[in-house]
Design goal:
heterodimer; A: about 260 residues; alpha/beta; 2 domains; 5-stranded mixed beta sheet; B: about 425 residues; 6-stranded parallel beta sheet; two-stranded antiparallel ribbon; 10 strands; globular; disordered C terminus; binds iron/sulfur cluster; metal-binding (chain B); metal ion binding (chain B)
Chain lengths: ~260, ~425
C-alpha cells in the first residue's frame, strides 16, 4: 500500500502548483499540502518538501487551463483566499477536473466543486470591492498612493485593472496586512515592500507627504458625496449592505472633514 | 484654481443634479489604447453608495442651474428661488480628471439647465466632452444628458465623445407634459432621440465594414420618467417605456419616484412620501420585459392598470395565471422556468446545467438559491412532496406573505433588490 504523505511547499502559488505536479507525477497519496512555516506533521504520514519549479508549475497551470478557463481562475482565486486547508481542497478539485472529460462538465452539485467555486467568488467580490474602494492620494513626488487591508490577498488580481486604467500616472497600492505593495512606474508594475512609519488612511490629520491640493480635492469629493443624498430617501440598512463598515476606513467621503 | 469658489459651485450644481437617478457607467467598451487616462469597465463600478443605497459611480453635476424654462416638477425651474451658479467648461474638465485620477469615479454625468437656448447650452456640454477626450486623452465614461430641442448637428457631435446620451422624457404622457412643462413640445424630446438612434444604427453598420469608424455613443441612449407626479397609471408608464425601448432602441429607461420640491397645485405637496416601492415595482416589471420574456400586456392591461404593491409583478402574474402551473423543473424549457416565481434568471441557468447530471429535488434547488417559499406553490421536482392542495390565488398569496414578511418589508425601502 502507498504510504500517505504531507507535501510542504513555500507558500507561493507556483510552489503549490509544483506540489500538485509532484503528487501526480510520483503518484503520491497526499494527506495534506501545507505551507512550510505552518506545517504540522501527522502521526501516520511522511512529509516531503517540494521545491518550487516554475516549469512544473506551468505544466499544471496549462493542464488546468486546457480543461477550462473558468477552472484555472477558480483555482487561482480560491488559492489567494489563504483559507486554512484550501490546498488540499484544491488538490481534490484538480484531480476531479483532470478526470472529467472537459471542464464544462464539472458537476456543481459536488461539494468540493461547489466549495471552490464559492471561495473563488468571495475572493472575486473582494477584488471588485478593492477596485472600487481604493482611494488614491497624491504625494509630493507625484505618486498616487493608496493603502488597503483586504480580507484576501487580492493585489495580484487587481494589478491589471489599475495598470490599464491609470496608464499615465505613477501609482502605488500597499497592502498593510500582508506588508507588500504594487507600484506602477509608467512602464510596468512591480512588487515593493515599504517601511511605512505612518499609515496613511483617512486620517483626520494632514500628512505633509501629500500635496496641499490633495486635501482640497478630498474636501470637494466629501462635499459632493454629501450633496448626492436625497433626504427623503435615506435607507441606512441598504447603505451598509453595499458598503460594509469595515471598508469605511478607505473612503475619504466617510471621514470627518479634514 | 480657486477652490472655495469651486466648492460653492459644486455644492449648488451637484445638489441640483441629484434627482436624475441614472448612474450607470456600464455598457461601454472604450479602452485605454494610447497610454492615456482611463477606460470604461464593461460592467461599471460603484465607487460608493449614497445614504439611500444608490450607486455613486459618476460625477453627476449640472453645468449650470440657470434656466429659461419653468417645468413644474424641477428644482431648477425659472420661478424657483434658489441660489444659481455656472461652471466654466475648463472647471468641469479639471474636476473630472482630478476625481478620476484618485479612483473616486468612473467618469462624468453632465447635464444642464437651459441658458439662452437649447443649442447654446448643448454646445457647451459637447465642448466639455470634447476637451476631455481630445486634450486630456480621457477614456473614462461620459454621459451627456442632452437638452430637449438640441439640433441634429450637436447631437451628432455629442455622440462622438460621449459613451451614453440621454434625453429625459420626465413626464410619461403627452397630456401631463402640456400641463407640467408648457415650454416643451413632445418633438423636442423625440427628435434628438431619433437622431441618436439613427446615428447608432449607422455606426454599427459602418463599423462592420470599416474597422476604425469613429465610435458613436457606444453605451447607447437612455431616458428617465418621473413616477407619481402627474397622476399617471403604471400601465401608462410601462406602455410608454415599451414604446421608447422599441422606437428608439433605448438601452435603459429609468423610473424616478417624484421627490416633491415645490408648492404647486398641479403636483403632490412637499412632504408627501416618495413612491419608492412603486418605483421598485416598475423596475421589476422593466426587468421582466427585458430579460424574462414577458410582454407588457401580460403584466399591465385594462383590467390591471396598476401593479400590485404587496407582491412582485412576476408573482402577481403567476397568481392570475395559475393554469400555467405547476411547472416541472426537470423538463420545462427555459422560458417556462423563468416564469416560476422565486426563480431568477441565474437559477434558470443553474437548473438547466445541473439537471443534465441528475433529476433535481428540493434540496438541490435550495442550494442553487431558489426562493422556495415562493416557488414551491408553482413547481414540481424529483420528490414525492409537493403542493397538492388545490389552493386558490388568495390563499397562496396569503401564505407567501406570511412566510416572508421580513423580506417583503425590506422591499418597501429598497430600490435595488430586484428578484432572486
Ligand atoms: S428645462 Fe430642464 S432644467 Fe429647465 S426647468 Fe425644465 S427640466 Fe428644469
Amino acid at each position: 500500500m502507498n504510504t500517505s504523505t504531507t507535501l510542504i511547499y513555500d507558500g507561493s502559488f507556483n510552489g503549490f502548483l509544483t506540489a500538485v505536479f509532484v503528487a501526480f507525477d510520483e503518484k503520491i497519496n497526499v494527506v495534506d499540502i501545507q505551507k512550510n512555516n505552518q506545517s504540522q506533521s501527522g502521526l501516520f504520514s511522511d512529509t516531503e518538501t517540494v521545491f518550487t519549479n516554475v516549469e512544473k508549475a506551468k505544466r499544471v497551470w496549462n493542464g488546468i487551463r486546457n480543461k477550462s478557463y473558468n477552472a484555472i481562475s477558480n483555482v487561482y482565486f480560491a488559492f489567494l483566499s489563504e483559507t486554512e486547508g484550501v490546498e488540499l481542497m484544491l488538490y481534490n478539485y484538480i484531480q476531479k477536473l483532470m478526470r472529467a472529460q472537459s471542464g464544462k462538465c464539472l458537476d456543481y452539485s459536488d461539494s468540493t466543486v461547489l466549495y471552490i467555486a464559492q471561495l473563488a467568488k468571495k475572493v472575486g467580490r473582494e477584488k471588485h470591492r478593492m477596485e472600487a474602494f481604493v482611494r488614491f492620494q497624491l504625494t509630493k513626488d507625484e505618486i498616487y498612493f493608496a493603502n488597503i487591508e483586504p480580507d484576501f490577498d487580492v493585489l495580484p488580481l487587481i494589478s491589471k485593472h489599475f495598470r490599464d486604467r491609470y496608464a499615465d500616472q505613477k501609482w502605488l497600492i500597499y497592502d498593510i496586512k500582508r506588508k507588500y505593495g504594487i507600484y506602477y512606474d509608467l512602464d510596468h508594475v512591480e512588487m515593493v515592500s515599504l517601511n511605512l512609519k505612518d499609515i496613511q488612511h483617512n486620517k483626520t490629520v494632514k500628512s505633509n507627504a501629500f500635496t496641499s491640493e490633495e486635501y482640497e480635492y478630498q474636501t470637494l469629493w466629501n462635499d459632493y458625496f454629501k450633496s448626492t443624498n436625497i433626504a427623503s430617501r435615506i435607507n441606512p440598512k441598504l447603505h451598509t449592505q453595499h458598503v460594509p463598515k469595515r471598508y469605511w476606513k478607505y473612503l475619504s467621503e466617510k471621514k470627518e472633514a479634514v | 484654481m480657486n477652490f472655495d469658489r469651486i466648492r460653492e459651485k459644486l455644492n449648488i450644481l451637484a445638489d441640483a443634479a441629484k434627482y436624475d437617478v441614472s448612474c450607470a457607467s456600464s455598457g461601454s467598451d472604450r479602452t485605454n489604447k494610447t497610454k492615456g487616462l482611463g477606460n470604461a469597465s464593461k460592467m461599471g463600478i460603484c465607487h460608493s453608495y449614497t445614504a439611500d443605497g444608490r450607486c455613486v459611480s459618476l460625477l453627476k453635476i449640472l453645468l449650470t442651474n440657470h434656466c429659461i424654462f419653468d417645468c413644474a416638477y424641477c428644482v431648477t425651474r425659472k420661478s424657483n428661488d434658489v441660489p444659481r451658479a455656472a461652471f466654466k467648461v475648463q472647471e468641469v474638465v479639471d474636476l473630472t480628471i482630478n476625481f478620476y485620477r484618485r479612483n473616486y469615479i468612473e467618469g462624468l454625468f453632465l447635464s444642464s439647465g437651459i441658458f439662452k437656448s437649447p443649442d447654446h447650452t448643448m454646445e457647451r456640454l459637447v465642448s466639455v466632452a470634447k476637451k476631455l477626450r481630445k486634450e486630456e486623452n480621457f477614456n473614462g465614461y461620459i454621459h451627456l444628458k442632452s437638452i430637449p430641442g438640441a439640433s441634429d448637428e450637436l447631437m451628432y457631435e455629442a455622440g462622438l465623445y460621449a459613451d451614453r446620451l440621454s434625453v429625459n422624457i420626465e413626464v410619461p404622457t403627452i397630456s401631463g407634459l402640456k400641463l407640467l412643462a408648457p415650454d416643451k413640445k413632445h418633438e423636442d424630446f423625440t427628435k434628438p432621440m431619433e437622431k441618436v438612434k439613427n446615428e447608432i444604427v449607422r455606426y454599427k453598420s459602418e463599423q462592420k465594414i470599416i474597422k476604425n469608424t469613429p465610435k458613436y455613443a457606444p453605451a447607447g441612449q437612455s431616458t428617465q420618467m418621473i413616477v407619481g407626479a402627474s397622476g399617471e397609471s403604471d400601465k401608462d408608464i410601462m406602455y410608454s417605456a415599451t414604446y421608447y425601448y422599441k422606437t428608439y432602441n433605448m438601452k435603459r429607461v429609468y423610473y424616478s419616484g417624484y421627490v416633491p420640491v415645490t408648492h404647486d397645485s398641479r403636483l403632490p405637496a412637499i412632504g408627501s412620501q416618495v413612491p419608492m416601492l412603486r418605483e421598485n415595482r416598475l423596475y421589476q416589471t422593466d426587468w421582466l420585459l427585458r430579460f424574462y420574456g414577458f410582454s407588457v400586456g401580460e403584466i399591465l392591461n385594462n383590467q390591471h392598470p396598476n401593479l400590485d404593491m404587496d407582491v412582485d409583478p412576476k408573482l402577481s402574474w403567476a397568481l392570475r395565471n395559475l393554469h400555467h402551473f405547476p411547472v416541472n423543473v426537470n423538463t420545462a424549457d427555459k422560458r417556462l422556468l423563468a416564469r416560476i416565481p422565486g426563480i431568477g434568471m441565474r437559477s434558470v441557468d443553474k437548473i438547466v446545467k445541473a439537471r443534465k447530471f441528475r433529476k433535481l429535488n428540493w434540496d438541490h434547488l435550495k442550494k442553487m438559491g431558489v426562493a422556495l417559499n415562493r416557488a414551491q406553490y408553482f413547481m414540481v421536482c424529483e420528490s414525492r412532496y409537493w403542493e397538492r392542495r388545490d389552493l386558490d390565488a388568495e390563499k397562496i398569496k396569503g401564505m407567501i406573505l406570511q412566510n416572508s414578511s421580513g423580506k417583503f418589508r425590506n422591499q418597501y425601502s429598497t430600490q435595488l433588490s430586484l428578484f432572486n
